[in-house]
Amino acid sequence: MRLPTPRILPTIVLCGCFIAGSAATPLFGAPVSQEHIERLQKLRNRIQDLQQQLLKTREQRDDTRRQLQLAEKRIGGLLKGLRVLNHQLQNDHRGLSKLRQQKQNEKQVLKQNAQLLRKQARSAYILGRQETLKLLLNQQQPNRVQRILIYYRYLNRARTDEIDSITSRLRQITNLQFRIQQHQQKVRQRHQAQLTQKQMLEKVHSKRQQLLASLNTRVRSQTDEIGRLQRDEKRL
User: Fold this and answer.
1) Any residues with CB less than 8 A from the CB of 236 and at least 6 apart, and which?
2) Residue 193 pLDDT more than 70?
3) Which own/partner pairs from 210-218 qualify as long-range (CB within 8 Å, at least 24 positions apart)?
4) Residue 175 to residues 96, 162, 166, 170, 182: CA-CA distances in angstroms?
5) CB proximity list for 100: less than 8 A, separation 6 or greater
6) pLDDT digits over 112-157, tens only?
7) Is 180:92 a contact under the CB 8 Å cutoff?
8) What is the DSSP string of the chain?
9) From its phi and psi, is residue 91 left (phi > 0), alpha (psi between -120 and 50) or beta?
């Protein structure tokens, strides 16, 4: 085999180096297009915008959650207040029932005493007339009629005092009934006001629950989209 001459060898080596350099350039230094750079920048801008939106959505969700907790606390307080007012109304109702029964009993006793007083007055009148007529005819025991009339006056006075006492108790019962009825009216007004407030809070609470569910869905959607875009960024 014939070896190359010394003059031809440098030329062969130089040509080999040139070919090897031309083949390696596309592998290690491939050019990036402007379109590729713009797509990557838009993708990063979109990720940044979504991250800001996600931050605001999370803040709104946390604020809504705090408002829900406050509304639930206020609703609980109103429920406790309504239970107290219901208890007061029940006590007032029982008190009025007792007073009505007591008033009925007092009226019955008053009626009986009035009837007895009328009978005693009629009897004293009739007996007094009869005894007076007898004494006038017989002219005996002149002090007997006076004693009988004093006795009947004593009985009538005792009966009258009893009637006055019953009448006074009836007035007291009527006044107490009036005060209880006034208290009932105020309690009912407070009960209705708290019930109305509770119903309004429950409506607000329901709307905020729906808003919270929507915000949770939005957070998941934005988080998923950010993850997808970040994976696209890595591929680019």
Assistant:
1) 36, 39, 40, 43
2) yes
3) 211/64, 212/61, 212/64, 212/65, 212/68, 215/57, 215/60, 215/61, 215/64, 216/61, 218/57
4) 12, 20, 14, 9, 11
5) 177
6) 877 877 776 676 666 555 555 555 555 555 566 567 667 767 777 8
7) yes
8) -PPPPTTTHHHHHHHHHHHHHHHHHHHHSPPPPHHHHHHHHHHHHHHHHHHHHHHHHHHHHHHHHHHHHHHHHHHHHHHHHHHHHHHHHHHHHHHHHHHHHHHHHHHHHHHHHHHHHHHHHHHHHHHHHHHHHHHHHH---TTHHHHHHHHHHHHHHHHHHHHHHHHHHHHHHHHHHHHHHHHHHHHHHHHHHHHHHHHHHHHHHHHHHHHHHHHHHHHHHHHHHHHHHHHHHHH-
9) alpha
Which tokens sit at 90? 């029940």
Q: Please tell me the total number of residues recorded for the chain in this structure.
A: 236
Structure tokens at 40: 């990557």
Q: What residue has token string 């009934």? A: 177
Structure tokens at 190: 């407070």
